[in-house]
Every structure is written in structure tokens, then in C-alpha cells.
Design a protein that fits this description.
The protein is an alpha+beta fold. It has three domains: about 40-115, Trypsin-like serine proteases (Thrombin, subunit H), CATH 2.40.10; about 135-220 and about 345-355, Beta Barrel (Thrombin, subunit H), CATH 2.40.10.10; about 230-325, Pdz3 Domain. The chain is built from seven helices and 22 strands. It starts with 5 loop residues before the first helix and ends in a 6-residue tail after the last strand.
């Protein structure tokens, strides 16, 4: 057997370590921000399988959905589930679950599905939708043409777009993106590079490449906060009127909830909530948008005392808020009076509908 001198052995070891270091560095460079974002968000992205009865028998539609609350609430496009006989949601782990359609909002092309209770689902956080930068990287995930869990990347091409859908409905405040989107991506997420949900993919431009549209996350969560309000879900009233503000004093931009007003003689006013307070927590749930405020109270009942943590003049204050009875009967001006029927074979926007 040949043996190496001490010098040769040391040299061989140095070469081996140098080679291993280069391999490790190359491997580490592959784990970029996109890989990390996809990995951490995958459990919250679901397949929506819809069976509809048409003139020529049953037809299956494939769409995408996003878990927006760990109690089993999923958001998708309304045109995916409209007229469905059955809706089945396929989780990332392969589990098939029958879902019920809880909300259909034709004006925003949004629907909310409810999955069976008894377990916690991985919800995905909303990112700020009001500070998007044209040119920033975005990630789309969906099931185009049945190719499940397809990831594509692109940029924010424009913000504030307006399009007219084939049904005549006009969608506003849209994100235009160059991320690859096709039929089957409907209802799926558009993420920023941090893996935050900044949009719900809704449409693409016919006869074009790299022109697609997503509902802005601010529009989505504001719509959810109305349809899934504490008044409707738990028949409780809190009296808070709020708006979101994006702050970027240090590090990445973050969104916070600022109190506009506490309705006169409301639980919030009685608790001492003041205009300008920044809501940090409601009923032990951290809040970054109005939807968080509403869903923090879904499991409450009239008469319950809950804590609201606010920041006021740079100091945190904990207030005790006694919930009043709500009737949940508020009507939304955005809901159309007539039923809207969506085309289900695709979700392309005619060229004349783009603005």
C-alpha cells in the first residue's frame, strides 16, 4: 500500500476541504429567496377541483386557492366555483377534502371556501398591497392546465390597472405582472420575494405573453373583512373603524392598523380606544390589517371581555373591551343585485377590456 508523506497528506486534505467548500458554496447559492419563499408557503397553497354540470354532461374545472385562516378558510376566484355541484380541495400533503362555498363576491371575483373543522391548516400572511414597487420580483404558484404546484416568477409590471371581464364586470386596483399565469392559476397566490401574499391571480391578456393580472391583497383582505366580519361570523360588535398604513422606518416595509374612530357609545369607545391608536393585538391575535381585527373575534360571543393592545404616543397600552351584540345584517354596496355568470372554460380577458 502506498503511503503519503506528511506534506502530501496535508496537501491532499487541503484540496479535499477546498473542493468541499466550493460544493457547499455552490449548493448554498441555489437556495435563493425564491426557493425559500416557495418552500415556506407551499403548505398554504391548495388545488381547487370543481365539478359542474353543463349542456354536455359533467365537467371538471381546476383552480387554485390560498388558506387565509388556520380554521379552514380558503380564498379563490369566484369564477372557479360559480355554479359548482361539488368542490374538492386538495391540500399540499395530498389530502382530499370536500369544501363548502361560504362567500361569493362577483364584484371582486372572490369566493371563500370552508374546509372541515377539527384541525389547524397553515394560513398564509397578507403582505402590504399599497406600497408595491414597479419592477420588484414576484412569484406565482398554481396549477396551470393541471400541472400542479407550478411556480413562475416575474415582476410587478404596473399597479392600479383596471380591466373588464368577459361578463362585463370591471375589476380595479389590479396588479399587472409578467409572471407566467395560465388557466388553472385562477385563485392562486402572487407572492412578494418574502413569501407574503400580495395578490390573487385573476386574469390574463388574450393573445399576449407576460401580461397577467392579480387582485391586490389590500382589496382582498378588505373584502374578506366585510364578508367575514365579527358581526356576521359571531354576532358581536366591536365599534372599531380602522385603516392600514405601511411603515418602513427600519428593515422591510410592514403594515399596521390605525384607528380612524371608535363609534360613539360603542364597546371600543367605552374601552378608551382613541383615534390614531395603532392596534397591535386583538384578543391575543397580532393584527396587521382589518381582516385580522375581524377574525380575531370569530370565536367570541356578546358580553365577552377581550383585550386590545394599542400603541399610543410610542407606548403600549392594554385596553379591556366588552363586546356588544351585533346583528350581522350589514349589506355591502359592492355586491351586485343580479347574479353574474362567469365563463368557466378559461379566464382570459379580451384585448379591448384592458385599460
Amino acid at each position: 500500500m502506498r503511503t503519503l508523506s506528511n506534506g502530501a497528506a496535508a496537501a491532499a486534505l487541503a484540496v479535499a476541504l477546498w473542493t468541499a467548500a466550493r460544493v457547499d458554496a455552490a449548493e448554498a447559492s441555489r437556495h435563493n429567496a425564491v426557493v425559500d419563499a416557495v418552500k415556506k408557503t407551499r403548505p398554504g397553497v391548495v388545488t381547487v377541483k370543481v365539478e359542474k354540470r353543463g349542456n354536455f354532461g359533467k365537467k371538471e374545472i381546476i383552480g387554485t386557492g390560498v388558506v387565509i385562516d388556520d380554521r379552514g378558510y380558503v380564498v379563490t376566484n369566484r369564477h372557479v366555483v360559480a355554479g359548482a355541484d361539488t368542490v374538492v380541495v386538495l391540500l399540499a400533503d395530498g389530502t382530499d377534502l370536500t369544501a363548502t362555498v361560504q362567500v361569493e363576491d362577483a364584484a371582486h371575483d372572490l369566493a371563500v371556501l370552508k374546509l372541515p373543522g377539527g384541525k389547524k391548516y397553515q394560513e398564509l400572511p397578507f403582505g402590504p398591497g399599497s406600497d408595491l414597487m414597479v419592477g420588484e420580483d414576484v412569484i406565482a404558484v398554481g396549477h396551470p392546465f393541471g400541472y400542479t404546484d407550478t411556480v413562475s416568477t416575474g415582476i410587478v409590471s404596473a399597479v392600479g390597472r383596471e380591466i373588464t371581464m368577459p361578463t362585463g364586470e370591471t375589476l380595479t386596483n389590479l396588479i399587472q405582472t409578467s409572471a407566467g399565469i395560465n388557466p388553472g392559476n385562477s385563485g392562486g397566490p402572487l407572492f412578494n420575494i418574502r413569501g407574503e401574499l400580495i395578490g390573487i391571480n385573476v386574469a390574463l391578456r388574450e393573445n399576449a405573453q407576460g401580461i397577467a393580472f392579480a387582485l391586490n391583497a389590500d382589496t382582498v383582505q378588505q373584502t374578506l373583512s366585510q364578508h367575514l366580519s365579527a358581526g356576521k361570523m359571531a354576532k358581536v360588535q366591536h365599534g372599531l373603524t380602522c385603516h392600514e398604513a405601511v411603515v418602513a422606518e427600519e428593515g422591510p416595509a410592514r403594515q399596521q392598523v390605525v384607528v380612524d374612530d371608535a363609534a360613539d357609545k360603542s364597546p371600543a369607545a367605552a374601552a378608551g380606544v382613541k383615534r390614531g391608536d395603532v392596534l397591535l393585538k386583538v384578543n391575543d391575535r397580532a393584527v396587521t390589517n382589518r381582516f385580522d381585527v375581524e377574525r380575531a373575534l370569530w370565536d367570541s360571543k356578546p358580553g365577552d371581555k377581550i383585550e386590545a393592545v394599542v400603541s399610543r404616543d410610542g407606548k403600549e397600552t392594554t385596553l379591556s373591551l366588552k363586546l356588544a351584540k351585533g346583528d350581522g345584517s350589514e349589506r355591502l354596496a359592492s355586491l351586485p343585485a343580479a347574479e353574474v355568470k362567469y365563463r368557466t372554460d378559461d379566464f382570459a380577458v379580451p384585448a379591448k377590456g384592458q385599460k
